[in-house]
Amino acid sequence: MSQKQQVYLSLGSNMGNRILSLQNALFSIQNNIGEIVSVSGVYENPAVGFEGGDFLNACIALQTELPPTKLLASLLQIERDFGRERNTSEGYHSRTLDIDIIFYGNEIVSSEELTIPHPSMALRNFVLKPLSDIVPQFYHPIINKDIRNLLQQCKDRSKLQKTQHRLFKSRMELFSQLQFIAIEGNIGAGKTTLTKMIASDFNAKLVLERFADNPFLPKFYKDQARYAFPLEMSFLADRYQQFTDDTLQFDLFKNFMVSDYDIFKSLIFAQITLQKEEFNLYRKVFNFMYKEVKKPDIYLYLHQDTERLLENIKKRGRDYEQDISPSYLDKINRGYLDFIKAHPNQNSMILNLGDLDFVNNTGDYGTILKALGDQIILSCF
């Protein structure tokens, strides 16, 4: 087995959503190349040597077993994955993602395809400044000066400003910045399954809705008009008690909390099932309770079409769910979407599942994690 080597990379982007490109590039590096051990701040600077949008730049340190040439090949592939098309003409150009190898330990490499240390790094303050964040005393093996001295002596006076952006070494670290994620969806959308997967993979406290023993539920599916009000009041009381107990006490050994329901679902279902007078009474009780409960940092709604929902409901085989009508599921979907539209200040995201099979397809699961991570980055940092 090859020995791990400490490597320093510079990353930049001046096209598209720059911070998401940098963050997702770090996740790709962590998954495919090696362990990221430190990340610099994120700096903004004008394009140097050509007309283009401002860059966001950062540096990272990582440990990898890949030799320099294979490391370069892997980084070039990541650039291509992010839409980078290297221009063979002379001069610099805008790019969605640019990754340069600055140091590969203390090794010196000189070939047609690769030069290490990077030959221009000492001339660029947008490389030296973020590099000094993570390794200020590292000595350049050719110039024999550390990064702090190189930065002080650098003649590059182009504008460089540290931003409020923050990059994370892994999705585990990113998700851990939150306190609470609520995952909602229609009956059969897969919200409980996804919640369990995220809780397991990211060391989160699992908060699940407990309703299997509700005596009114089987009766409701047979006679909705008669049992709607006692069912909804029973659900509200149970959800309020459970939700309060589960979310108010944080587990010190977990990174965050993830729930397969938000208590607001009570009002959504009640508006569908109750008569107007019943709903008005119900809403008064609900509003009093809702003020007291914890609100999620991210509210993720899993949207699935009715035909797929019916297929999922049939597969899981709960007897009392088999007579659920398509029109009832349509109303629930509309109720959730209306709720999200009516609460613009809530940090909500709608994920259209379509043909995604996040249970059996790791790529589809990764698609969901990426969408969730992007929402966290854009809305919370």
Question: Could you explain how this protein is built, in words?
Answer:
The chain has about 375 residues and is an alpha/beta fold. The protein folds into 2 domains: about 5-160, 2-Layer Sandwich (Alpha-Beta Plaits); about 170-380, Rossmann fold, CATH 3.40.50.300. The protein is about 45% helix and about 15% strand. The protein is built from 13 helices and 13 strands. Strands 1, 2, 3, 4, 5 and 8 form a 6-stranded antiparallel sheet that branches. The longest helix has 25 residues, at about 225-250. The protein is elongated, with a radius of gyration of 26 Å. The mean pLDDT is about 90.
Query: Which segments are poorly predicted (pLDDT under 50) over 5 or more consecutive residues?
Result: none
End-to-end Cα distance, whole Å, is 39 Å
Order of helices and strands: EHEEEHEEEHHEHEHEHHEHHEHHEH
Distinct helical segment count = 13
Q: What summary fits the major beta sheet?
A: 6 strands, antiparallel
Instruction: Report the radius of gyration as a whole number of Å.
Output: 26 Å
- The rough form would be described as elongated
Summed up, the domain count is: 2
